[in-house]
TrEMBL record, chain A:
Its EC number is 1.1.5.3. This is Glycerol-3-phosphate dehydrogenase subunit GlpB. The gene is glpB. PANTHER family: ANAEROBIC GLYCEROL-3-PHOSPHATE DEHYDROGENASE SUBUNIT B, FUMARATE REDUCTASE. GO terms for cellular component: glycerol-3-phosphate dehydrogenase (FAD) complex. Residues 6-419 form the FAD-dependent oxidoreductase 2 FAD-binding domain. One of its GO terms (molecular function) is glycerol-3-phosphate dehydrogenase (quinone) activity. It is an enzyme of class 1 (oxidoreductase). Keywords: Flavoprotein, FMN, Oxidoreductase. It comes from Halorussus limi. It comes from the Archaea. The lineage of its organism: Archaea, Methanobacteriati, Methanobacteriota, Stenosarchaea group, Halobacteria.
From TrEMBL, chain B:
CDD domains: GlpA-like_Fer2_BFD-like. One of its GO terms (molecular function) is glycerol-3-phosphate dehydrogenase (quinone) activity. It comes from the Archaea. Pathway: Polyol metabolism; glycerol degradation via glycerol kinase pathway; glycerone phosphate from sn-glycerol 3-phosphate (anaerobic route): step 1/1. It is an enzyme of class 1 (oxidoreductase). It catalyses: a quinone + sn-glycerol 3-phosphate = dihydroxyacetone phosphate + a quinol. Residues 438-486 form the BFD-like [2Fe-2S]-binding domain. This is Glycerol-3-phosphate dehydrogenase. It is found in: Cell membrane. PANTHER family: GLYCEROL-3-PHOSPHATE DEHYDROGENASE, GLYCEROL-3-PHOSPHATE DEHYDROGENASE, MITOCHONDRIAL. It is a peripheral membrane protein. It comes from Halorussus limi. Its cofactor is FMN; FAD. Its main location: membrane.
TrEMBL record, chain C:
The lineage of its organism: Archaea, Methanobacteriati, Methanobacteriota, Stenosarchaea group, Halobacteria. It comes from Halorussus limi. Keywords: 4Fe-4S, Iron, Iron-sulfur, Metal-binding, Oxidoreductase, Repeat. Gene3D superfamilies: Alpha-helical ferredoxin. GO terms for cellular component: glycerol-3-phosphate dehydrogenase (FAD) complex; membrane. This is Anaerobic glycerol-3-phosphate dehydrogenase subunit C. Its EC number is 1.1.5.3.
Length: 438, 559, 449
């Protein structure tokens, strides 16, 4: 019995970290096992709670997510934790991120411009995106970079206007100052801005060296033409985003904001850092780098309990024992749900995942149709414990949180981070309570 | 709007573009119309095999001889579209010896270079072959990119004065019961407009002679002309693997059957196929059993296929034809030969010829024969030069040199670009600065995408077939929007977004047939990226009514 | 091979020493195959099947973050491999900028064999495209074969240490070989670990059922024998029989320099010497996380000697092993030391083995010592990488974050399991750096302090 904890959480994304944090704050010993990086780095870093009701063709976006939660179908994870559960989880989140995030001053959703040129409803947004809200009527200049191909600023600006935003939007594409290769990663730009590296700038027939923040502002100035705020793709510093933004604002005399991007997402990385820090502070122990592949039955409380999960390491299996377990391995994207030509499964505990036996029933015909696959995941009881085929609890001491839960299409509803936070906090607290009660 | 031309070619597949090129090179004034983009029909839905003829060496020796002859021609004139992979006919333990001997004999009779490989030699050449290999016959099969080949033919035709119109559907033929004198065309709303016609506009094209090169759709044109063309469309499935498990075309050496070939095609391997007669070439079931059959059968040849990732499946429809008196009941018995139907001889209708049947490998030969026929009708005496003059892009054997560094491209990117662009690589790659890669999976740079846009306007599917952008692992999830961005500002924002949606839907259509394992994860990621991150699924710009922006959080100023 | 094969689930036994059988390592269905006729490398194209393009590897790559010439692991691995055809042999030269920290492996959510792809591509590049007479090749060869140099140097340690610290010699190294003069050459010990081991007469404890074979690697043998001694005493105090078989370099610096032939020779000797002991019931213990990484992951990925799989399955890092087999936490809870505060850095190769948190957790429970984790940045030295003149600056840029975090702690000393990370930590902060084994030995072994 080498390694033993009160609560073991499997999965290191928002749901796993939130569950671990919530449990650790209840004063129990918590270990978080994660195999690889989570999907947090692929996500925009926005914290969506609920932007649209399912099957609400053409309706929405919702201006008040909390009001709409009771209208969700019974199988939705929000119905399990309730509106209060969602609010409590947001309170935990707000406490963790402090002033790194905004949006907690109101119940209303914010509409944030996306790198695809649309706006999307979200409940919490990074401070770096705060000046970019679509309900703000200040004129905006979007700035893109020639080699950052995911964001075409002039096209996005035109598209925002066609959505009827209440401000004038223009776009400009410039070259990122300095001599970067065309395939430089956005982390490279972020790092240069963090360090305010000196870069070579071509003047009229001469070359000078400038700190990169100043050089960037100089490159934007000719396009400013009175715009009151300036939006950049989200690469304004990985470790010192506030400082980078302040430097640019001072140089430009305009508010500066970031437009959230797809993977690799720097706001997602910053959020991961904040959550990891909070977990460490709360005493969560992290064991990373190897997959949890199965479990041992026969826990303390009874034979149906899980006694340990087994981590696979080059052919050896290492058991991690605990009283309570939380499954937070993600959905199809995070690989917490697995599939082959014959069916869909949850690979660690083999929890039941409802799905049609014919894989041609898993999708809708249109790319943005109502896809059954988007709702694949485990079903739970009121205490977030996964249910088997017959509707009975799979294991008394296992709870699930986040995208591994079925019954919701987070991408269509814009509810990803919200579901992870709400179910993570609920599962973590519930697991901790169980430990203290026993 | 009206226009006149000597010859109107209907159909922008390999046969149609081949005919347009051939006639244009002989100085004939040609117009080609295609209702979709080039290769929209059967050509764009083939498995990419450049036949050595080995496949027909037992069952249809005439076709086999044509294949080996044309195989050699295409290597000469279309180097940048062909990869000389070589092929193997593999006999597994338990497969009949007699057939293997017949195949070998047949190849030799037809002049197809054939060499017997022991099991060990076969596996040394293709290490992922099953250990159940008994022996194999090596033949000069190859892989060909039908898209680039048709595009090159069309470009060559245009260079010789032809007019090529895509997204231009024939809605009626002009003329009467005795003579066809042209066609009425509708320019479709599909993006990709060139200088002629606006979307929805119709145009009359008057012609001395009309060639119906619509393959499986020939019967429809026939109906407009009031003649009966008995095409027997037959569908076949192709399953696309994510990467190349083999670098040689692998055929199962046994009498004809489903699922007996793996073609290494560009970065992928394509498994084929089935042979099922269908009523309508545009509306037929695409079924799960067909996909499963490919994987389950072909993993007996190449076991790793059972575990490997597929990225999509697609179906093609063969334009099979047999003279009505033959009456085969099984489509696999229908000849793969082609037929020139002169409607004057056949139906007393002047000014129209249809070409049906045949196969991609011999497209040039078919085009030559029909062009000879058309020239006879028009009294033109020029001879065919398509077998000697290289296609644009293949004029000189472009050698990949280390000098590719000057484009600032990583070597695999430079290599792939050169393989696609052939002798145009220099010109295209040096046209845009800076030149980032837009499609990471297939290593397609901005310069190549812009070059394709210059050729095909806002039709991103036409850009895709020219460049392979969006045809890799992620099936466009990470690059569709990057491609659409290149349309702007030359084309306006609504056009760019419409083009993006078209491409995204087209990719999804094929990807649906590969939704399990890695590809289902990929689909989940693509869906999340475009819906959760970008909100393209509920894009406010697409809404009828404006959002009440005032009801949402406007931020806290001054913080 | 792809992760399509689920890891084998050991049956219902609770034995943590469950051996994965030879067959499951190289599945019978898919044999290693040759991309290039003249080499013996795996065809890694199928590895691209697992990549779903999320770019997580790129965001975790310490080199891509600071080096303008490095396109990142996604391109370098799955993309470059997938774009290959049989006859294509050109590898982009940027693969030489990869430091082999393997952080891409531990970040990839989809199990793409990234470092294997990098190692193989680098091997191809060195084999086919690098000028064997170039300064770079000669220098890399020398660095990769540190053991050979160390063996000579440790014969006359004082003279060597004097010479290597001599600025004239350093200038020559930089000019002639391209070895940076910014770094202090590691000092050679007066007495190597093996000399000490011979002198003490080998094992002091014999046991039938608790037996380990020590893979000490080059560094604890020639430069920091104290780590090796601590390991031996600690294990003997728990009743283990420790043996020290003949061994070569684990190969880590060779992989990183694309010298796969050298690595292969060394691996062959190591597998031969250790696999026999495994059959006799010995587990293999390493005190350097790059050595254990190498035996565990790189050997089975790159070589196919008989016994490779069982060596991999029986290799452990020293603390990990004690933690699994002894009640180490309880022992530590009853112990105390006077060691103070440490700024602990988890080496990338410890992170890859899932060992990033263990040292801090163990020291947490020990009175009189405290270790604070300085975060998950890379130290930047990556073995021989940071010794190269042209990589020195990159190496220090990567390390900047770690130095900063070390300065922010209350500690005045550092701690890590990896000898080259230790060099970098000392070089960047001036702190003295300890190995966790030394602190544990102090706490748990009678008379060690």
């Amino acid at each position: 019995m080498a390694i033993e904890d009160d609560v073991t959480v499997v999965g290191g994304g928002i749901a796993g970290m939130t569950a671990a944090l919530a449990a650790a704050r209840e004063g129990v010993d918590v270990r978080l096992l994660s195999h690889k990086d989570s999907t947090l780095k692929s996500a925009s870093g926005l914290v969506d709670v609920l932007g649209y009701l399912p099957e609400s063709d053409g309706e929405g976006p919702l201006s008040d997510p909390f009001e709409a939660i009771p209208q969700l179908p019974d199988a939705h994870p929000y119905r399990t934790v309730g509106v209060e559960g969602v609010r409590e989880a947001l309170a935990v989140f707000d406490g963790v991120v402090g002033d790194r995030y905004r949006g907690d001053h109101t119940d209303r959703n914010a509409l944030v411009p996306t790198h695809g040129g649309a706006v999307k409803p979200t409940a919490r947004y990074p401070a770096s995106a705060a000046a970019g809200l679509a309900s703000d009527d200040r004129s905006a200049l979007l700035v893109g970079f020639e080699t950052v191909t995911d964001f075409d600023a002039p096209l996005a600006a035109d598209h925002l206007e066609s959505a009827g935003v209440p401000f004038a939007a223009r776009g400009a594409t410039i070259s990122f100052p300095g001599d970067f290769r065309v395939d430089a990663k956005i982390t490279r730009f972020a790092d240069a801005l963090d360090a305010d590296e000196r870069v070579a700038v071509q003047g009229d027939g001469y070359t000078t060296e400038l700190p990169v923040r100043e050089a960037l502002a100089e490159a934007v100035k000719p396009h400013l033409r009175g715009a009151e705020r300036v939006g950049f793709p989200a690469l304004l510093g990985q470790h010192r985003p506030d400082e980078v933004r302040e430097s640019l604002e001072a140089e430009l005399g305009a508010a500066v904001f970031e437009v959230p991007m797809g993977p690799p997402s720097i706001p997602g990385m910053r959020l991961e850092g904040a959550l990891t820090g909070a977990c460490r502070e709360a005493g969560v122990r992290f064991t990373t780098g190897n997959p949890v592949v199965d479990y041992e039955e026969g826990g303390r409380a009874g034979s149906e309990d899980i006694a340990a999960v087994r981590v696979e390491r080059n052919g050896a299996a290492i058991p991690f024992h605990a009283d309570q377990f939380v499954l937070a391995t993600g959905g199809l994207v995070g690989k917490g749900i697995d599939s082959d030509r014959e069916g869909v499964a949850e690979p660690i505990f083999d929890c039941h995942v409802p799905h049609s036996g014919d894989r041609y029933d898993w999708f809708a015909d249109a790319a943005f149709g109502d896809h059954p696959f988007a709702r694949f995941g485990v079903e739970t009881d009121d205490d977030l414990r996964p249910l088997d085929r017959r509707g009975d609890v799979e294991f008394p001491n296992l709870r699930a949180a986040g995208a591994v839960l079925g019954g919701h299409d987070f991408a269509a509803e814009k509810s990803g981070a919200g579901v992870s936070l709400a179910t993570g906090v609920a599962a973590g607290r519930s697991a901790a309570k169980e430990v203290s009660d026993s | 709007m009206t226009a006149t031309t000597d010859v109107l070619v209907v159909g922008g597949g390999s046969t149609g573009t081949g005919i347009a090129r051939d006639l244009a090179m002989r100085g004939v004034d040609v117009t080609l119309v295609e209702k979709g983009n080039l290769t929209h029909g059967t050509t764009g839905r083939m498995h990419g095999l450049l036949h050595s003829g080995g496949r027909y060496a037992v069952s249809d020796q005439a076709s086999a001889e044509e294949c080996i002859e044309e195989n050699r021609v295409l290597r000469d004139i279309a180097g940048h579209c062909v990869e000389e992979t070589g092929g193997q006919f593999v006999q597994l333990e338990g497969d009949p010896d007699e057939y293997f001997e017949e195949k070998l004999e047949g190849c030799r009779e037809c002049g197809i270079p054939a060499e017997v490989l022991s099991a060990e030699e076969a596996r040394e050449e293709e290490p992922y072959l099953t250990k159940d290999v008994k022996r194999a016959i090596r033949v000069p099969d190859g892989a060909v990119d039908p898209f680039r080949l048709c595009v090159a033919n069309a470009v060559s035709a245009e260079n010789h004065g032809a007019r090529v119109e895509t997204h231009a559907e024939v809605i009626d033929l002009l003329g009467d019961d005795e003579r066809i004198t042209g066609a009425e065309i509708r320019h479709e709303t599909g993006p990709g407009k060139r200088s002629h016609g606006k979307s929805g506009e119709t145009e009359e094209i008057r012609a001395e002679y009309v060639v119906n090169a619509t393959g499986a759709w020939a019967g429809r044109i026939g109906e407009m002309a009031g003649v009966d063309i008995e095409v027997r469309p037959s569908k076949g499935v192709m399953v696309v693997m994510n990467c190349r498990q083999v670098d040689t075309v692998i055929n199962r050496c046994r009498p004809k059957g489903d699922a007996d070939i793996v073609v290494p095609h560009e970065t992928t391997a394509i498994l084929g196929t089935t042979d099922e007669e269908v009523e309508d070439p545009e509306d037929y079931p695409e079924e799960r059993w067909e996909v499963d059959l490919m994987i389950d059968e072909l993993k007996r040849l190449v076991p790793i296929l059972g575990e490997a990732r597929t990225v999509r499946s697609f179906w093609g429809v063969r334009p099979l034809y047999e003279p009505p008196e033959v009456g085969s009941s099984d489509p696999t018995d229908i000849t793969r030969d082609y037929f020139l139907l002169d409607h004057e001889e056949r139906d007393d209708l002047h000014g129209l010829t249809s070409i049906v049947g045949g196969k991609f490998t011999t497209y040039r030969m078919m085009a030559e024969e029909i062009s000879d026929h058309v020239c006879d009708q028009l009294g033109v005496s020029a001879t065919c030069r398509t077998a000697e003059v290289p296609l644009p892009g293949s004029e000189d054997e472009s050698v990949l040199d280390a000098g590719m560094d000057r484009f600032g491209l990583r070597s695999p990117v430079a290599r792939r670009s050169t393989q696609r662009l052939g002798s145009r690589a220099d010109e295209v790659l040096s046209s845009v600065e800076p030149n980032p890669v837009l499609c990471d999976c297939e290593a397609v740079t901005r310069a190549e995408v812009r070059d394709a846009i210059d050729q095909s306007g806002t039709d991103l599917n036409a850009v895709r077939i020219r460049t392979r952008a969006s045809m890799g692992n992620c099936q466009g999830g990470f690059c569709c929007h990057r491609m659409a961005s290149e349309l702007h500002p030359e084309f306006d924002e609504p056009q760019a977004y419409a083009a993006l949606d078209d491409l995204f839907e087209e990719r999804w259509k094929g990807e649906r047939h590969a939704l399990w394992g890695e590809q289902l994860s990929q689909a989940g990621l693509n869906y999340a990226l475009h819906s959760a991150t970008m909100n393209r699924d509920r894009d406010p710009a697409d809404r009828e009514e404006a959002i009440a922006f005032g009801e949402f959080d406007g931020g806290q100023r001054g913080d | 091979m792809s992760d399509a094969e689920q890891p084998t689930n050991p049956n219902d036994s609770n034995d943590v020493n469950e051996v994965r059988h030879e067959e499951t390592v190289s599945d019978d269905e898919f044999e290693p195959v040759q991309v290039f006729p003249e080499s013996e490398d795996m065809d890694l194209r199928p590895g691209s099947d697992d990549c779903y393009k999320c770019s997580t590897c790129d965001t975790n790559c310490p080199v891509a973050e600071v080096d303008d010439d490095f396109p990142g692991p996604k391109f370098q691995g799955p993309e470059q491999w997938r774009l290959k055809r049989k006859e294509d042999t050109d590898i982009d030269d940027s693969v030489m900028s990869c430091s082999n920290c393997m952080r891409c492996d531990s970040s990839c959510p989809s199990d793409v064999p990234l470092s294997q792809m990098h190692n193989t591509a680098r091997g191809e590049y060195v084999e086919n495209q690098m000028d064997k007479l170039s300064r770079e090749y000669v220098r890399n060869r020398i660095l990769a074969n540190y053991r050979t140099m160390a063996e000579l140097g440790s014969k006359v340690p004082r003279l060597t240490n004097f010479l290597m610290g001599n600025s004239l010699v350093q200038a020559v190294n930089e000019k002639v070989l391209g070895i940076t003069s910014e770094r202090e050459f590691p000092e050679f010990a007066e007495e190597t670990f093996r000399e000490w081991w011979e002198k003490r007469g080998g094992p002091q404890v014999r046991s039938e059922d608790k037996r380990v074979a020590y893979f000490h690697g080059c560094y604890s043998n020639y430069n920091t024998p104290a780590v090796g001694k601590a390991m031996v005493r600690l294990f003997e105090s728990f009743g283990y029989e420790v043996v020290v078989p003949k061994q070569r370099c684990s190969g880590t610096p060779m992989f990183a320099n694309g010298m796969l032939d050298d690595a292969k020779r060394a691996a062959g000797i190591n597998v031969e010497n250790f696999s026999g002991l495994v059959e006799e019931g010995y587990d293999i213990i390493a005190s350097c996380t790059s050595c254990s990484m190498s035996l565990r992951q790189e050997y089975p990925e790159l070589f196919s000697y008989d016994g490779t799989a069982s060596v991999a399955a029986h290799t452990y890092e020293a603390l990990e092993y004690l933690r699994l087999h002894e009640d180490l936490e309880a022992e530590l809870a009853d112990a105390e030391v006077d060691a103070g505060e440490f700024a602990y850095h988890a080496p990338c190769h410890a992170r890859n083995q899932g060992l990033a948190g263990q040292a801090v957790e163990l020291i947490d429970g020990l009175d009189g010592a405290n270790a604070e984790d300085v975060g998950d940045s890379c130290s930047g030295i990556s073995g021989t990488y940071g010794w190269k003149d042209e990589k020195y600056e990159t190496s220090m840029k990567i390390g900047a974050e770690m130095f900063e975090h070390m300065e922010e702690t209350d500690a005045e000393a550092g701690m890590t399991e990896c000898p080259t990370c230790a060099m970098q930590m000392e070089h960047g902060t001036g702190y003295e750096i300890r190995h966790p084994l030394e602190v544990l030995e102090e706490a748990l072994v009678e008379g060690s302090h």
